[in-house]
Design brief:
Blueprint (H helix, E strand, L loop, with lengths): L8 E4 L3 H11 L2 E9 L1 H7 L5 E8 L6 E9 L19 E5 L3 H9 L4 E2 L4 E3 L3 E7 L5 E7 L2
Parallel strand pairs: 1-4, 5-9
Antiparallel strand pairs: 2-3, 3-4, 6-8, 7-8, 8-9
């Protein structure tokens, strides 16, 4: 077997506390925070003299995690464009299954999140939407219709 599991998805952010608050509002739990630095980290990541403030958040079922990283050194590099459309090459979004998508959107809007398009129904299966965070990345939500 080549892969045992997927441990986490990493997201680089500028405002770690605000991003923790946003994902806490979504229902993730802060598992821990720490500062990462040292030659071992430099060698793994390939950035000389790096310092990163990191937070690990887990989903309610405990099976998935987000690793949120705020680079102290070197400074974060901004992609062009910051608010990249959904067809931009690379990792762009993370999707969560939710119980009440409309309530979730309303709660996340208090954290500065905005709908990318519209809340749409896919057949008789799901309500779906993309939300843009203040950091510029996309959170996708799906509510299974019963």
């Amino acid at each position: 077997m080549a892969v045992k599991r997927m441990d986490n998805v990493g997201i680089v952010v500028e405002d770690l506390e605000a991003t923790i608050a946003l994902f806490t509002e979504l229902g993730l739990e802060l598992e821990g925070q720490m500062r990462v630095e040292g030659s071992w980290a430099d060698h793994v990541v390939g950035l000389e003299g790096m310092q990163v403030e990191m937070a690990m958040m887990k989903t309610p079922d405990g099976h998935s995690r987000l690793e949120l990283s705020r680079f102290i050194r070197p400074k974060v590099i901004h992609p062009e464009p910051k608010n990249a459309p959904a067809n931009t090459l690379g990792y762009l979004r993370v999707m969560f299954a939710v119980d009440d998508i409309k309530d979730t959107i309303t709660r996340l809007e208090t954290h500065g999140v905005k709908l990318v398009g519209k809340l749409e129904r896919y057949e008789d299966s799901y309500l779906l939407c993309y939300l843009r965070t203040p950091e510029g990345f996309i959170i996708a939500l799906a509510e299974e219709l019963k």
